[in-house]
Amino acid sequence: MIQKPQEVNSAHEVRPLADFEDRSSFSENSPKKSAIGSYLKNSTKASPSIIQVRANEIMTRKILTIKSDSKLDELQSFFESYSFRHILVENNDNQIIGIISDRDFLKSLSRGLNFNNEVQEIMTEKVFFASEHSTIQEIARLMFYENISCIPVADSNYKLTGIVTSTDILKFLISTHSINSRI
Description:
The protein is an alpha/beta fold. It has helices at 31-42, 48-51, 55-58, 72-81, 102-110, 136-146, 166-182, and strands spanning 65-67, 86-90, 96-101, 130-131, 150-154, 160-165. It has a 3-stranded mixed beta sheet. Strands 4-5-6 form a 3-stranded mixed beta sheet.
């Protein structure tokens, strides 16, 4: 069943980096904690204009869907025909019930599934949705904590309007940095 999209920061249970009391402890223990510590020390330096950028400003508007009962050979054709890494999975009522990435597909083949298996056997059922007005900071935080690389975006009528991928965020940050460094 499709979930009603909510603002990203209230659609899940994650603990934002800002909730940690002692930020200095992150730079000492491990490479990952060191990276988080560096982020925390510099996160307040980000330009307010970058932080306020909304999903609808950077999202990919073309969305690919596949039926849950489609075979993996059809999924393979999708990945070969389109340069997308994520495909939304829908049931026969056209409701989004999952998502599948090219990595999910490759992992399924390495586990011994064959092309006659159905997409629903390998899809991720837990799909987070963002509103068009969710900030890229909220989306990036959710991606980081949930270890996901894309979030579908819906408008106020719960109609899918796009998808934000980690690549979309990186492209935006790179293009913004390039523009600012020339000024």
